[in-house]
Write a structure and sequence with these properties.
With 368 residues, the chain is an alpha/beta fold. It is built from eleven helices and eight strands. An eight-stranded mixed β-sheet has the order 1-2-4-3-5-6-7-8, with helices on both faces. Helix 1 runs parallel beside helix 2 and helix 5 packs across helix 11. It is globular and about 45 Å long.
C-alpha cells in the first residue's frame, strides 16, 4: 500500500505544472456520488509493489515534448508525440528495439457515409488453415486524435495472445465529423467484418469487439446497435478504460483530474470538439451507465487503470452490466495510467492485463 501511494505521488510530481480549466459546459456536470470503487470487493484488482516502469514512461512523455491536450490545437494534438512514442524512447534508452510479433498485416477499406475508412487486418503467422476467431478493435483518442498506427501494439498483442485475427478500425474523427459519426462508422465496420470475415481467414460465427478509451465506448455501442437492429451479436466485449458516462465529478475524475496522459481538462477538450449540439451530451451512446439499456448484451471484460479519470466509468459500467444480467469480469490495475494497456514492451502490468483479456476472449471463442 505504501508503495502504491509512493507511485501515485511520483506520478503527481511528474505531472506538476499541468494546467486545468473547466470542462466543457456541454458535457453534463452531475453531483458527486458515493465512491463506487469501494463497492467491488470481487473486482480482481491487481496489486503490485513495483511501479517504477510506469513512472519511467511518464517521465519520458515529458522528455519527448508531449504537452497537455487541452493546451493544443487539434492539429497540434494530432501531430505531437504520443505515449506509444514514449515507450519507443524508453526502449531506445535501454538499447532495445520494439518486439516484432509474428503477425501478418494487411490494409483494406470499408464503406462509410460519403466514402471509405481504413481497416488493418492482423493475422498470426501460425494461423494454420482453419478459420480463426476475429476481434474488431476500436482505437482510442477521444474521437478526435490518434489512429490505427498509434494503437498498433494493442492490436498486435491481442492477435498473438488471443490467437485471433484482429481487424483494427479507423473511423471519422471530430471536429470534422461530429458525434455520432464515429459510432455510425464503427457499426458499419462491424457489419463489414461479419460479411467479409471468411475472405481473410476469419470465422464469421466467432467475432468479438474490443476497444480502448473512446474505442471502448464504440465497442460497447456496436454490441448495443447489433442487439437493437437484430444483427448478429459479438461473442464478447473487451472494454479497456472505456468512456461510459458524462459525469466529470466521479471519484476518479476528482482524484486524477491532473493525470497524464489523460486529465479532466483533456476530456473537456475532447468533448468540446465532438458534440454537435449540447443535448448530445445526454445521448445514451455517451451515457452507457445512466441511460443505455444494457440487457441482452454479450459477456464483457472491463479493464481500468488506477491513475485515470475514467476509472470510475469502468467500475460503474461493470456494475451496471452485472445488474443487467451480463456476465462480466473486471480488473483494475494499480499504479498505472490511462494508455497503459498497449505498453507491454515496457510494463509488466500491460502484459498481465493483456493476458487477462486474452484468456476471456479465448473462452468466448470456444466453439459451442
Amino acid at each position: 500500500m505504501k508503495r502504491s501511494i509512493h507511485v501515485t505521488l511520483v506520478a503527481a510530481r511528474l505531472l506538476a505544472g499541468v494546467s486545468l480549466f473547466a470542462a466543457s459546459g456541454a458535457w453534463a456536470q452531475e453531483e458527486p456520488k458515493p465512491n463506487p470503487l469501494a463497492e467491488t470487493p470481487d473486482s480482481g484488482t491487481m496489486k503490485r509493489a513495483d511501479k517504477e516502469d510506469m513512472a519511467l514512461v511518464l517521465k519520458k512523455m515529458q522528455d519527448i515534448g508531449i504537452k497537455p491536450i487541452e493546451s493544443r490545437s487539434v492539429e497540434e494534438a494530432r501531430s505531437q508525440p504520443t505515449p506509444a512514442d514514449a515507450v519507443k524512447a524508453v526502449l531506445k534508452d535501454k538499447g532495445e528495439t520494439p518486439p516484432m510479433p509474428a503477425v501478418k498485416k494487411e490494409d483494406m477499406t470499408y464503406p462509410v457515409t460519403g466514402g471509405t475508412q481504413p481497416v488493418r487486418i492482423y493475422t498470426p503467422d501460425d494461423a494454420g488453415s482453419d478459420p480463426l476467431p476475429v476481434i474488431v478493435y476500436y482505437h482510442g483518442g477521444g474521437w478526435v486524435i490518434a489512429n490505427i498506427d498509434t494503437y498498433e501494439s494493442s492490436a498486435l498483442a491481442l492477435a498473438v495472445k488471443a490467437k485471433a485475427i484482429v481487424v483494427s478500425v479507423e473511423y471519422r474523427h471530430a471536429p470534422e465529423n461530429k458525434f455520432p459519426a464515429a459510432h455510425d462508422d464503427s457499426f458499419a465496420a462491424y457489419k463489414w467484418v461479419l460479411e467479409k470475415a471468411s475472405s481473410f481467414g476469419g470465422d464469421p460465427a466467432r467475432i468479438a469487439v474490443a476497444g480502448e478509451s473512446a474505442g471502448g465506448n464504440l465497442a460497447a455501442n456496436v454490441a448495443i446497435m447489433a442487439r437493437d437492429q437484430k444483427v448478429q451479436l459479438p461473442v464478447h466485449m473487451l472494454l479497456v478504460y472505456p468512456v461510459t458516462g458524462t459525469d466529470m465529478n466521479t471519484p476518479s475524475y476528482i482524484a486524477n483530474q491532473n493525470a497524464m496522459p489523460l486529465s479532466k481538462a483533456a476530456m473537456g477538450w475532447f468533448v468540446s470538439k465532438v458534440l454537435a449540439k449540447p443535448e448530445d451530451a445526454m445521448d445514451p451512446k455517451l451515457n452507457l451507465t445512466t441511460k443505455a439499456d444494457l440487457k441482452g448484451l454479450p459477456p464483457a471484460t472491463v479493464i481500468t487503470a488506477e491513475i485515470d479519470p475514467l476509472m470510475s466509468d469502468g467500475v460503474m459500467l461493470a456494475e451496471k452490466l452485472k445488474a443487467a444480467g451480463v456476465a462480466t469480469t473486471y480488473m483494475n490495475n494499480q499504479g498505472v495510467t490511462h494508455e497503459f494497456f498497449g505498453m507491454d514492451a515496457v510494463l509488466d502490468d500491460a502484459r498481465r492485463a493483456q493476458d487477462f483479456a486474452a484468456s476471456d476472449l479465448i473462452k468466448a471463442f470456444k466453439k459451442k
